[in-house]
């Protein structure tokens, strides 16, 4: 916003300072004095002596002036009155500019009105950009991200240019769609990419103090395919089983038009823990999984991510997607352990195990056909049936031991 200030015997002077969301842009003011040097570009840590030379027709004296930097008044100990119309200020060990548009060094009259100003650009020449990575959502596009090589170059305006070309032939091209804000240092190539031929990709950095180029990254589009995280992740109980949960999800939409297999990973953690445990790493188009061996009556958080493999026959895996948003579910409470219960004696325990195994095989004959029915899924179903029986509370505490006994003694029964 412009505003006016009026000195003795002077016409109103318009002062411009453009601010957007608390970021003030360095702009030049109508001068009643000449500031030198004008808009210097300096390295961090350097020193600067600037002068404010008054226009003689205004009748001001240099000893009445003062300086500000970004609105903060500078100490008079840094001033030198060089003549009646020239006042200098010396700044030592300059820090990086607080804004890429430049820092405002302004000369003021005694009443505070602006006589003239200069923009200071303080930073460092760029170092070679680092951490260049690229990925594709559909084998037809490419998005690349990198990091500045040094902190100093971020204080002044530095231009980054992503370039790419086919490795063995083709001309050099420049990416045109650069992101801003939180997604800075990212560029998007939406189309016209070749498959089955490697690309060379690099980033060039330039500012008014120098230039630098990143290392060259070589990649094939098919090797950097990724997806969004799996959607609609749902976690539910498995009947009355108190140590299991079922996880279901929807395949990422980006891969529906591509010949692929999906490699999924599932991880989970306890509600009061920050440590994740990976539970599944499998290849195939399955979109569900059962977690076993969980704690009864416990809340779990579950996440799923996807890695596309076998794109157009390629044997290499793609890039893991982000993890899905955590989904919570709890296992049923274990109410079977009764207070005051006693463990059976060894002989009684062995007899009980044999009786339960006979029950199990009797149940199998009714519900399974042939050896193919002997599976962990079938055993889970039997456990549910057993838990619902009238003898559950007295026997279920020994069920895990029963299953172990089944595997170790099945040939003797």
From TrEMBL:
<feature type="domain" description="Fibronectin type-III">
    <location>
        <begin position="128"/>
        <end position="224"/>
    </location>
</feature>
<keyword id="KW-0393">Immunoglobulin domain</keyword>
<dbReference type="InterPro" id="IPR010457">
    <property type="entry name" value="IgC2-like_lig-bd"/>
</dbReference>
<keyword id="KW-1015">Disulfide bond</keyword>
<dbReference type="GO" id="GO:0009897">
    <property type="term" value="C:external side of plasma membrane"/>
</dbReference>
<keyword id="KW-0732">Signal</keyword>
<dbReference type="InterPro" id="IPR003961">
    <property type="entry name" value="FN3_dom"/>
</dbReference>
<feature type="signal peptide">
    <location>
        <begin position="1"/>
        <end position="33"/>
    </location>
</feature>
<dbReference type="InterPro" id="IPR015152">
    <property type="entry name" value="Growth/epo_recpt_lig-bind"/>
</dbReference>
<dbReference type="Pfam" id="PF09067">
    <property type="entry name" value="EpoR_lig-bind"/>
</dbReference>
<dbReference type="InterPro" id="IPR036116">
    <property type="entry name" value="FN3_sf"/>
</dbReference>
<dbReference type="GO" id="GO:0004896">
    <property type="term" value="F:cytokine receptor activity"/>
</dbReference>
<keyword id="KW-0812">Transmembrane</keyword>
<dbReference type="InterPro" id="IPR013783">
    <property type="entry name" value="Ig-like_fold"/>
</dbReference>
<feature type="domain" description="Fibronectin type-III">
    <location>
        <begin position="229"/>
        <end position="334"/>
    </location>
</feature>
<dbReference type="InterPro" id="IPR007110">
    <property type="entry name" value="Ig-like_dom"/>
</dbReference>
<protein>
    <submittedName>
        <fullName>Cytokine receptor-like factor 1b</fullName>
    </submittedName>
</protein>
<feature type="region of interest" description="Disordered">
    <location>
        <begin position="327"/>
        <end position="350"/>
    </location>
</feature>
<keyword id="KW-0325">Glycoprotein</keyword>
<dbReference type="Pfam" id="PF00041">
    <property type="entry name" value="fn3"/>
</dbReference>
<feature type="domain" description="Ig-like">
    <location>
        <begin position="30"/>
        <end position="107"/>
    </location>
</feature>
<dbReference type="GO" id="GO:0097058">
    <property type="term" value="C:CRLF-CLCF1 complex"/>
</dbReference>
<keyword id="KW-0472">Membrane</keyword>
<dbReference type="GO" id="GO:0043524">
    <property type="term" value="P:negative regulation of neuron apoptotic process"/>
</dbReference>
<dbReference type="Pfam" id="PF06328">
    <property type="entry name" value="Lep_receptor_Ig"/>
</dbReference>
<keyword id="KW-1133">Transmembrane helix</keyword>
<feature type="compositionally biased region" description="Polar residues">
    <location>
        <begin position="327"/>
        <end position="341"/>
    </location>
</feature>
<keyword id="KW-0675">Receptor</keyword>
<dbReference type="InterPro" id="IPR036179">
    <property type="entry name" value="Ig-like_dom_sf"/>
</dbReference>
């Amino acid at each position: 916003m412009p505003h006016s200030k009026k000195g003795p015997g002077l016409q109103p002077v318009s002062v411009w300072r453009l601010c957007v969301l608390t970021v003030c842009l360095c702009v030049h003011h109508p001068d009643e004095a000449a500031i030198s040097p004008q808009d210097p570009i300096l390295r961090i840590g350097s020193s600067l002596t600037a002068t404010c030379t008054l226009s003689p027709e205004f009748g001001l004296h240099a000893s009445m002036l003062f300086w500000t930097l970004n609105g903060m008044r500078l100490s008079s100990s840094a001033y030198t009155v060089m003549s009646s119309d020239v006042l200098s200020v010396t700044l030592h060990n300059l820090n990086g500019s607080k804004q890429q548009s430049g820092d405002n060094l302004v000369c003021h009259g005694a009443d505070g009105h602006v006589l003239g100003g200069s923009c200071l650009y303080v930073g460092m020449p760029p170092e070679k950009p680092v951490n260049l990575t690229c990925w594709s959502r559909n084998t037809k596009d490419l998005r690349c991200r990198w990091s500045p090589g040094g902190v100093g170059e971020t204080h002044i305006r530095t231009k980054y240019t992503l370039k790419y070309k086919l490795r063995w032939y083709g001309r050099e091209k420049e990416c045109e769609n650069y992101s801003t804000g939180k997604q800075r240092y990212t560029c998007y190539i939406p189309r016209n990419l070749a498959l089955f031929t490697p690309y060379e990709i690099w980033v060039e950095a330039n500012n008014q103090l120098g230039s630098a180029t990143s290392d060259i990254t070589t990649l094939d589009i098919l090797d950097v395919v990724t997806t969004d995280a799996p959607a609609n992740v749902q976690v539910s109980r498995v009947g009355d089983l108190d140590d299991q949960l079922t996880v279901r999800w929807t395949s990422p939409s980006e891969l529906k038009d591509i010949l692929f297999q999906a490699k999924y990973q599932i991880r989970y953690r306890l509600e009061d823990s920050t440590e994740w445990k990976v539970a599944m790493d499998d290849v195939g188009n399955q979109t569900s999984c059962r977690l076993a061996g969980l704690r009864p009556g416990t809340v779990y958080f579950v996440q799923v991510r996807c890695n596309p493999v076998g794109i157009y026959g390629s044997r290499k895996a793609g890039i893991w997607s982000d993890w899905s948003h955590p989904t919570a579910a709890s296992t049923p409470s274990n109410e079977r352990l009764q207070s005051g219960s006693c463990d059976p004696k060894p002989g009684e325990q062995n007899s009980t195990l044999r009786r339960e195994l006979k029950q199990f095989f009797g149940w199998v004959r009714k519900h399974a056909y042939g050896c193919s029915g002997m599976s962990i899924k079938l055993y889970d179903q039997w456990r549910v049936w057993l838990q619902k029986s009238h003898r559950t509370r007295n026997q279920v505490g020994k069920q895990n031991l029963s299953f172990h006994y089944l595997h170790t003694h099945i040939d003797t029964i």
